[in-house]
Amino acid sequence: MEVEIGKVTHYFNHLNVAVLKLSDGLKLGDTIHVLGHVTDFAEKVSSMQVNHQAVVWVKPGDDVALRVEEPVREHDVVYRVVEGTLEANF
């Protein structure tokens, strides 16, 4: 299961850093899925910064910079992958 947590607002290609506007919390070690018109990949969050300071978690409403392994684009949607959730099929 995936939960939408924000959108990409900027990408620094020379640093491989995406800036996200968050609508939900995020912490180091979470798995994210980035999805856009030509973007579709998942990776674990390994590095985050707020105002050029390293952080281990961020809250909704924060603008956070994430190091990413693949290029992203503005307006790409970012999801947090939630594992271990049981879904009932009715």
Task: Report on this structure.
By secondary structure, the chain is an all-beta fold. The strands form 2 sheets. The chain has an 8-stranded antiparallel beta sheet, with no helix packed on it. The mean pLDDT is 93. It has one domain (2-81): Elongation Factor Tu (Ef-tu), domain 3 (Beta Barrel), CATH 2.40.30. It contains no helices and 10 strands. The two termini are 16 Å apart. It is globular, with a radius of gyration of 13 Å.
Provide keyphrases for this structure.
90 residues, Elongation Factor Tu (Ef-tu), domain 3, two-stranded antiparallel sheet, 10 strands, globular
Strand percentage: over 45%
Going by CATH, the homologous superfamily would be Translation factors
Distance between the termini: 16 Å
- So, CATH architecture? Beta Barrel
Cα shape: globular
The number of strands is: 10
Question: How do the strands of the widest beta sheet line up side by side?
Answer: 5-4-10-1-2-9-6-7
The level of helicity is: under 10%
Mean pLDDT: 93
Number of domains: 1
Helical region count?
A: 0
Which residues sit in consecutive blocks of at least 5 with pLDDT less than 50? none
Largest sheet: 8 strands, antiparallel
CATH C-level class is Mainly Beta
Helix/strand order: EEEEEEEEEE
Q: Specify the structural class.
A: mainly beta
Determine the CATH topology: Elongation Factor Tu (Ef-tu), domain 3
Spatial extent as radius of gyration: 13 Å
